[in-house]
Specification:
49% of the residues lie in helices and 20% in strands. By secondary structure, the protein is α/β, with parallel strands linked by helices. The longest helix has 34 residues, at 2-35. The protein is globular, with a radius of gyration of 21 Å. It binds ligand C2E and calcium ion (3 copies). This is Diguanylate cyclase.
């Protein structure tokens, strides 16, 4: 009986520790979202498959905290969603991406569209369009220099409500990509109803290329369908020359992965990837 109680106490101390840490991290994230401290964007190139020249760039959120160190967006984005911080965080990040584009233009650098990721809560917030229009106007940035990435689950949960919103975003001038394509839903028929421009094939398919026949078959089917429906196709997570070579057999327009370029801080990205315009 005595021992049982000790076990319980240990267990409960452990739980308290975890809960304490989770709470501390939530508080830290709340502070970061309020102040902007430690939050930044890294930029990963998206290149043309055939000659590896720059076509666009994806903005990826980074959070660095004095106690927690570098926290992965795979952890702090879901935390922000749970804590009701995602709309504020998303607004901060969208503002950063737009300001960065403005800065690059002002420096006379050749602009390429920046893709920003929108989480479910961001996409469904009531004033997304107003917010986006305001930020673009404030920084005098053409909407064509901002693209939007959404996952299948965000779109398909409320497909009928999503369509008018997607149409408005495209009318504004933003291209829309479906992110992590192939991981969410088994049915492809919804594709013909969604007003989107780009499919980003999830990296799990690219990584199994050459290992399994079925992933080659899936890739052939998906890229073939995408071409029929006039979508652009981006292959995500290309890490090796062998994968790059294997992709030559499919109608893939763009490639994004560690092989062709890692995510970099804005200044490093510009130095490595953005040339000057000739006046
Ligand atoms: P994602 O949108 O699918 O972004 C691609 C992720 O794959 C990034 O991870 C990128 O660094 C990583 N990656 C790129 N190339 C390769 C490769 O060749 N191999 C491998 N193994 N990985 C590669 P990251 O930056 O850690 O972001 C993880 C996820 O967090 C993103 O996945 C996205 O879902 C979310 N996220 C990141 N930034 C934001 C943001 O600003 N807003 C929202 N809502 N979500 C974000
Ligand atoms: Ca993405
Ligand atoms: Ca992705
Ligand atoms: Ca992902």
């Amino acid at each position: 009986k005595q021992e049982g109680r000790n076990d319980y106490r240990l267990y409960s101390q452990d739980m308290n520790h975890q809960q304490h840490r989770a709470l501390a991290m939530e508080t830290a994230l709340r502070d970061a979202v309020e102040s902007g401290d430690g939050l930044s964007l890294h930029y990963q190139p998206q290149v043309h498959r055939h000659d590896r020249t720059l076509a666009g760039v994806e903005a990826l959120a980074r959070w660095q905290h004095p106690d927690f160190g570098r926290v992965s967006p795979a952890d702090f984005i879901p935390l922000a969603e749970r804590a009701g911080l995602m709309v504020a965080l998303g607004r901060t990040l969208l503002g950063q991406a737009i300001r960065q584009q403005r800065h690059w233009l002002d420096q006379g650098l050749v602009p390429v569209p920046v893709s920003v990721n929108l989480s479910a809560q961001q996409f469904w917030q009531h004033d997304l369009l107003v917010q986006l229009r305001q930020l673009l106007a404030e920084h005098q940035l053409p909407a064509g220099l901002i693209n939007i990435e959404l996952t299948e689950s965000v779109l398909l949960d409320k497909q009928q409500q999503a369509i008018p919103l997607l149409n408005s975003l495209r009318e504004l001038g933003c291209a829309i990509a479906i992110d992590d394509f192939g991981t969410g839903y088994s049915s492809l028929s919804y594709l013909q109803d969604l007003p989107v421009d780009v499919l980003k094939i999830d990296r799990s398919f690219i990584q199994r290329l050459g290992e399994s026949r079925s992933s080659a078959a899936i890739l052939a089917a998906v890229t073939g369908l995408a071409r029929e429906l006039a979508f652009h196709v981006v292959a995500e997570g290309v890490e090796t020359e062998a994968q790059m070579q294997a992709l030559e057999r499919y109608p893939v327009d763009l490639v994004q992965g560690y092989l062709t370029g890692r995510p970099l801080p804005a200044s490093d990205f510009a130095a490595l990837w953005l040339g000057k315009t000739r006046h």
